[in-house]
Design a protein that fits this description.
Length: 329
């Protein structure tokens, strides 16, 4: 062991000779290597975070709850119309403070030209600002303010679309249409996401002329109740026959108690694991499937997914009609 140390010292004294430029080159390469190592660690178990108080960067260990929180925020921002890379740029900038575009591009491993383009797009959306100094830097508005701005933008789009609806429909109707013989077709429609399914349920309810039948377990019943579907159901019950069947549980009993107008038109059954379904006038059926929350191998919670099938296919409608009749016997 002593001989090895001696050889090393001899090499250090006699063979390793660096002038100032070589030393600078080595230092630069080491810096680049450290940057790459930092980015690798950031994508793996460590995350580089800017400490505003000390104006310095530090590495912190990722944890599952932190990742879950970031994922939730990313999903929310995507629903407001931001694209994946726009979300990456905004969230990193919002956490890091003022940054040059080049630094930001290197930090999130995005091409510099693409980063500049995204920054300009986010500026137009009002959630990123340029700082007029050299070199040019960018800063992001706080998350709560950003969400307010994105919500206002969506509301503005909706108002404009409402204003343009009449003129667009008139323009469409003025275009010559091919004469097509109207015949009834048996159709299917796949729906995904609670909002899309709720819209279809409301449509089905509103077009019902005589009879509306609904089976909903406690889970579905709570979703329908808190989305104001029950209020619309109450209004429709004044002109059509409404029958609700639910499972035998304390949760179901609570919601039935909140909807006292259903006292004579509901049934409670000891049935489990049935999908929620609703039948309109024995002509159409909407069947909803709910995938429960699950955990992957890393024990990270995966969000549930809700899907549905709408159809006017006679055989399937009749099948669910017979199932409903069995439930209310």
């Amino acid at each position: 062991m002593t001989n090895v140390n001696c050889e090393f010292r001899l090499l250090s004294r006699n063979d390793i000779i660096c002038n100032q430029s070589e030393l600078g080159s080595i230092t630069h390469n080491i810096g680049r290597l450290n940057t790459k190592m930092t980015l690798i660690m950031e994508n793996d178990a460590l995350l580089k975070v800017h400490d505003k108080k000390n104006d310095s960067w530090k590495l912190v260990k990722k944890n599952q709850s932190y990742n879950t929180q970031l994922t939730t925020i990313e999903e929310t921002l995507s629903r407001f119309g931001l694209l994946k890379n726009e979300i990456r740029v905004y969230m990193f900038l919002a956490r890091s403070g003022e940054m040059k575009a080049g630094e930001l591009a290197e930090s999130i491993m995005l091409h510099r030209t693409e980063t500049y383009r995204i920054l300009r797009d986010l500026e137009r959306k009002g959630i990123v600002f340029s700082i007029f100094e050299k070199p040019l830097k960018f800063t992001a508005v706080p998350l709560d303010k950003a969400i307010d701005l994105l919500v206002d933008a969506q509301k503005t789009k909706i108002r404009l679309l409402e204003k343009e609806k009449l003129s667009i429909v008139e323009l469409w109707q003025s275009i010559p249409q091919h004469q097509v013989e109207k015949t009834k077709k048996e159709l299917f429609q796949m729906l995904e996401g609670e909002q899309q399914i709720l819209m279809k349920a409301n449509e089905l309810l509103e077009k019902t002329e005589s009879k509306f039948q609904l089976f909903a377990s406690a889970k579905y019943l709570s979703d329908l109740y808190y989305n104001d579907f029950s209020d619309k159901l109450k209004i429709q019950a004044e002109r059509v026959s409404v029958t609700l069947v639910t499972d035998n549980s304390l949760k179901s009993a609570y919601f039935i108690g909140q909807m006292q107008w259903l006292s004579e038109s509901h049934r409670i059954v000891d049935k489990q694991n049935l999908p929620c379904f609703m039948i309109s006038d024995n002509k159409e059926v909407l069947i909803t499937f709910h995938e429960e929350d699950s955990y992957n191998d890393d024990e990270v919670q995966k969000k549930h997914k809700t899907t549905a099938i709408w159809t006017n296919y006679g055989a399937l409608v009749n099948t669910f009609q017979m199932l409903f009749s069995k439930l209310v016997e």
